């Protein structure tokens, strides 16, 4: 079974631009979660999508948004990029995201650098 | 949300057992204890989870204290490939989302 894939793997943008990151979950998984990882803040939850609906949201500004398609693939968008948005963005998929024993499978991440 | 406390880093010798501790004194009765690890330049990967009883799988063992206020991840014979940051996370009905702490950076010495 193919794992979680994320594209692109690396991205360099300048302040003020916007960016779209893509995530393809494991086949059969309907829950996709996004995380931001920085050296200072660690792993922080951005949002989770299930059946094309945002089910949970972390504490991030509205510049961070996402969506999920009918095939469970997900995209996240960051508008008006700031230097502090430089981070590793991780996508994780799971079967339904609600089971207390539900395992999350992570992709390799997209490394975003904002100049 | 229930929180966990882990040492910032630990060192161990290759081919020796490693015991990674985690304190979770505010755990509730329905919270599961999950462990993930993140190898360098990779996304986190699932290691093991448990509720009350000790658990074993091909990667590790999880020992849970009787009062469930602490747990220990045991790598029976560490290799250089086990060098990673290990995260202990609680997951319960009040927080389906995984809440990540800083984790423990495990350094394996050859």
Your description of this structure?
The complex is a heterodimer of chains A (115) and B (110). Chain A contains no helices and eleven strands. In chain A, a hairpin with a 3-residue loop joins strand 4 (31-38) and strand 5 (42-50). In chain A, strands 2, 4, 5, 6, 9, 10 and 11 form a seven-stranded mixed beta sheet that branches. By secondary structure, chain A is mostly beta strands. With 110 residues, chain B is mostly beta strands. In chain B, the strands form two sheets. A five-stranded mixed beta sheet of chain B has the order 1-9-8-3-4, with no helix packed on it. Chains A and B meet through strand 5 and strand 10 of A and strand 4 of B.
Give the key terms.
heterodimer; A: 115 residues; mainly beta; 0% helix; B: 110 residues; 5-stranded mixed beta sheet; 9 strands; 45% strand; globular
């Amino acid at each position: 079974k193919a794992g979680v894939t994320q594209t692109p793997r690396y991205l360099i943008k300048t302040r003020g631009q916007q960016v779209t990151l893509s995530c393809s979950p494991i086949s059969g998984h309907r829950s996709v979660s996004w995380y931001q990882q920085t050296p200072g803040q660690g792993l922080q939850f951005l949002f989770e999508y299930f059946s094309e609906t945002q089910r949970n949201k972390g504490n991030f500004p509205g510049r961070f948004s996402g969506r999920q398609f009918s095939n469970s693939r997900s995209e996240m968008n960051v508008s008006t990029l700031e230097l502090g948005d430089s981070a590793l963005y991780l996508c994780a998929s799971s079967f339904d995201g609600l089971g207390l024993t539900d395992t999350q499978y992570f992709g390799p991440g997209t490394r975003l650098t904002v100049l | 949300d229930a929180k966990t406390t882990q040492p910032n880093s630990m060192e161990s010798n290759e081919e020796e057992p490693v015991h990674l501790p985690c304190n979770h004194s505010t755990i509730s009765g329905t919270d599961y204890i999950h462990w993930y690890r993140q190898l360098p330049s990779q996304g986190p990967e699932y290691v093991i989870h448990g509720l009350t009883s000790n658990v074993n799988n091909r990667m590790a063992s999880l020992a849970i204290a009787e009062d469930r206020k602490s747990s220990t991840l045991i790598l029976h014979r560490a290799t250089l490939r086990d060098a990673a940051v290990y995260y202990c996370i609680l997951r319960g009905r009040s927080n389906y989302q995984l809440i990540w702490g800083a984790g423990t950076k495990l350094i394996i010495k050859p």
